Amino acid sequence: MSAALASSVSLAPPVRPATNDFAVTIASENGTGSASVNGLLLRAAFTMGVPVSGKNIFPSNIQGLPTWYQIRVNGAGLTARADASDLLMALNPVLLAQAGVPVEFHLVPGGFHGFELGVPEARVSRRARHQYMDALRRGGSGEFV
C-alpha cells in the first residue's frame, strides 16, 4: 500500500454521536431510607451538572411494601420516565438470596443510608466505597460464590 493511500485509510471505527439517555431504577422496601437515598443520588448528579430527573414509579406509603424510583440522565433535558431501565438496583437482600441470587450484605455499625456520601473523607466511608467497588468487580467477573 502506498504511503498516500495508507494515510487516507482510517482503521478507526466511525464516530457516532453519543446519546446521553440512561435510566436507573431502584427497587427497595418503604421504610428503609430509600426516599432519602434516592433524593441524595438525584441531588448529587444535579449538583455535578448532570441533566437528571427522578420519578416515583410505585411509591408505597406503607412500611415494608415495595417502592420503585427511577433516575433518568438525559442530555436533551427530557424529564419523563424512561420506557425501560438500563440498570436495576434491587435492594432487598433477603428476597434476592431466597431466589438464589448471590448477595453480599455489609452492616456498618452506626452507619445510615448514604453515610459514605455525607462524609466521604472518613475512614469508614473510604472502606465502604472500597467494599462496593470490590463487590462490583467480583460480580462483573462472575466470581461470587
CATH C-level category of the largest domain? Alpha Beta
Work out the count of structural domains.
2
Q: What gross morphology would you assign?
A: globular
Number of helices: 5
In CATH, the topology of the largest domain is named Pyruvate-ferredoxin Oxidoreductase, domain 3
> How does CATH name the architecture of the largest domain?
3-Layer(aba) Sandwich
Tell me about the largest β-sheet: 4 strands, mixed
The whole-angstrom Rg is 20 Å
Topology:
Blueprint: H1 3-8, E1 21-29, H2 34-47, E2 52-58, E3 66-74, E4 87-90, H3 93-98, H4 115-118, H5 123-140
Parallel strand pairs: 1-4
Antiparallel strand pairs: 1-3, 2-3
Task: Pick out its properties.
2 domains; Pyruvate-ferredoxin Oxidoreductase, domain 3; alpha+beta; 145 residues; 4-stranded mixed sheet; 4 strands
Descriptive notes:
The chain is an alpha+beta fold and 145 residues long. The chain has 2 domains: 20-100, Pyruvate-ferredoxin Oxidoreductase, domain 3, CATH 3.40.920; 104-145. 33% of the residues lie in helices and 20% in strands. It has 5 helices and 4 strands, in the order αβαβββααα. Strands 2-3-1-4 form a 4-stranded mixed β-sheet, with helices on one face.
